[in-house]
Write a structure and sequence with these properties.
alpha+beta; YefM-like fold; three-stranded mixed β-sheet; 3 helices; 48% helix
């Protein structure tokens, strides 16, 4: 059974002040942090393994299927 994904939201200025905590949450707890700028989503800090899986999935979509 998959563990529910934890997501945090933080203004960029606030996240800057606690960047170590944001990174630790991603690295050790698998939590994502959505960085907000003027009330809009600007970027996301994700665990590195999630990033690698996302890149691999994009590569699979970009490569034509072999018959």
């Amino acid at each position: 059974m998959a563990t529910p994904r934890t997501e945090h939201r933080a203004k960029i200025a606030e996240a800057r002040n606690v960047l170590g905590e944001v990174i630790a949450r991603a690295r050790f707890a698998g939590a994502t942090t959505v960085l907000m700028n003027r009330g809009k989503e600007a970027a996301v800090v994700v665990p590195y393994d999630f990033y690698e899986r996302a890149l691999a999935a994009l590569d699979e979509v970009a490569e034509p299927a072999e018959s």
